[in-house]
Write a structure and sequence with these properties.
Blueprint: E1 5-9, H1 13-23, E2 27-34, E3 40-47, E4 50-56, E5 68-73, H2 76-87, E6 91-92, E7 97-99, E8 105-110, H3 113-116, H4 121-131, H5 139-148
Parallel strand pairs: 1-4, 5-8
Antiparallel strand pairs: 2-3, 3-4, 6-7, 7-8
Length: 149
């Protein structure tokens, strides 16, 4: 058995796959099934061990922020690089969320965040307050909010 994230695109599955595999470390396109005209129909990816399938199925199924892909990062440099790549042509959102140019929602989150939010109530409130002021997350500012509370 396996579980795969499956995303429906109008026509941009291959372009999305190229962006995602360039943005996410240890990612690659594993297979492309093409239609008779040579365009991609189904594109399969491995995003750092997470299987994702993209399909060009035509219009009628827009993406929504009700579902997102989450990337957990270890450093601010990694967060900044991925954020920049995924927001190019897209839109930054609140609290580490963004929408890429294909309309897919992402969360770019530092690995330390759960630890900062699993603390005493005063520190959790301070981190949560700082978090809600951010679009792209700032690890040092979140850590400072935690440490000052």
């Amino acid at each position: 058995m396996s579980v795969t994230t499956f995303l429906w695109f109008d026509t941009d599955a291959e372009a999305a796959a190229q962006l995602y595999t360039a943005a996410v470390p240890n990612a690659r396109i594993t297979e492309i099934t093409r239609q008779g005209d040579g365009s991609a129909f189904v594109v399969e990816l491995d995003l750092d061990g997470h299987a994702v399938t993209l399909m060009n199925g035509g219009p009628g199924h827009p993406h929504s922020d009700a579902a997102s892909l989450q990337v957990i990062v270890d450093s601010q440099a990694e967060l900044d690089r991925i954020w920049t790549a995924l927001t190019e042509g897209g839109e930054p959102g609140p609290c580490g969320w963004l929408t890429d140019r294909f309309g897919v929602s992402w969360q770019v989150v530092p690995a330390v965040l759960p630890k900062l939010l699993n603390s005493d109530p005063e520190r959790v409130i301070a981190v949560g307050t700082a978090l809600r002021t951010m679009s792209k997350l700032d690890i040092a500012a979140l850590q400072q909010a935690h440490d000052r509370a």
